[in-house]
Design brief:
It is built from eight helices and 18 strands. It has about 350 residues and is α+β, with helices and mostly antiparallel strands. Mean pLDDT is about 90; it is low at about 1-10 and about 265-275.
Length: about 350
């Protein structure tokens, strides 16, 4: 009877408990009285990041349910910035919801349905960025790209760069929203050309010639050379040109010019003074005819207009007056102007001061 009673007592103490571990459910029997006893009986240990419900010290009864969610490290690197989270979710999508982020339209290093094991998961996230892009000589334009570096952005655009191309910022630079990427297409080529070499001029002084005179003794002749250039182009435009090799095929021949050094004497009148000068001016102005009236508005041997004639005391028409009267009025005009500037063309021809 005692044995039977003991068996009845054990039966009364044995409890059936529903145990859920990371969502996997099983029925277990235990003689324990707390949640901790249930877990111990199943060889389940929990750490500070694990979640147990109800708590470890909570009492259990027959039919109780105990849930265990293991904590998992989720290492998230967003656009190069690293953060660690502890989650109890077993898939990426649930874990992101658990930490309160969605990363819509972002590139994830694994699918959102991927399983997160007990050891955790490292997740890399690259978010979309609004960028300003300029490729070659194309116009600057806006583009939204899901890229972490300049290299990734150019790959996404299908832009291939050579080792000579200039990329700003550099291919490895980390991008952020609003950055500008500029690609300068660099092309280097060599070109062979034939060029002329300008001749120089050798000047030889000659004291027998006036300083405004010169005489070519030998004509100059340009030379030629073959040149190999290295030409650097940015976006199709030449930015640098360097001579790699040059060969003279014909030397230039210098010109030889004899130049005068003697000062030319100051112009002097060919006439002594007085009426002889006026006679020569009249010859130049009106062919020496003191009564000239050609109908051009100028009169007499010195071709006065009526305004000037009357201003200096003349009466009537100049051509109706004597040679002496015309010379007298002309002398007043000369003295008032300090020279023969009233007759510029003929005065110049005759070497008269103006």
């Amino acid at each position: 009877m005692a044995v039977a009673a003991t068996g009845v007592g054990y039966a009364a103490m044995d409890k059936s408990v529903t145990l859920s571990v990371d969502g996997k459910t099983s029925q277990v029997s235990t003689l324990g009285s707390t949640v901790s006893d249930v877990l111990d009986s199943q060889g389940i240990s929990v750490g500070k990041h694990d979640v147990v419900a109800p708590g470890l010290g909570s009492p259990i009864n027959d039919g109780s349910t105990v849930a265990v969610r293991y904590g998992r490290p989720l290492d998230v690197k967003v656009d190069g910035k690293h953060s660690r989270y502890w989650v109890t979710a077993t898939d990426v999508s649930s874990a992101l919801s658990q930490i309160g982020v969605r990363y819509s339209n972002a590139d994830l290093s694994t699918s959102r349905s991927a399983t997160i094991g007990r050891s955790g998961l490292a997740l890399t996230v690259v978010t979309p960025k609004k960028l300003m892009i300029k490729i070659g000589d194309a116009k600057l334009h806006k583009k939204t790209l899901t890229a972490l570096t300049v290299h990734q952005a150019l790959d996404e655009l299908g832009v291939k760069v050579t080792k000579d191309d200039k990329v700003t910022p550099g291919l490895g630079a980390t991008l952020k929203d609003g950055d500008k990427i500029v690609v300068t297409k660099v092309h280097t080529l060599t070109r062979k050309v034939t060029e002329s070499i300008a001749y120089s001029t050798i000047k030889r002084s000659d004291s027998s010639m006036y300083s405004d005179q010169s005489k070519t003794l030998r004509a100059g002749q340009d030379g030629t050379r073959h040149v190999v250039y290295r030409i650097t182009m940015h976006n199709g435009h030449v930015v640098a040109r360097k001579v790699l090799h040059s060969t003279v095929t014909s030397k230039p021949v210098s010109a030889i010019v004899k130049v005068g050094t003697k000062s030319r004497p100051a112009p002097t009148s060919n006439f002594a003074s007085g009426s002889t000068v006026w006679a020569q001016l009249a010859q130049c102005e009106a062919g020496g005819t003191w009564a000239a009236n050609t109908g051009n508005g100028y009169y007499g041997g010195l071709q006065f207009n009526l305004s000037t004639w009357h201003s200096y005391g003349g009466s009537g028409y100049p051509n109706e007056n004597s040679r002496e009267t015309q010379i007298a009025i002309a002398t007043k005009v000369r003295d008032a102007n300090g020279g023969y500037g009233a007759w510029p063309s003929c005065a110049s021809q005759l070497g008269l001061p103006q």
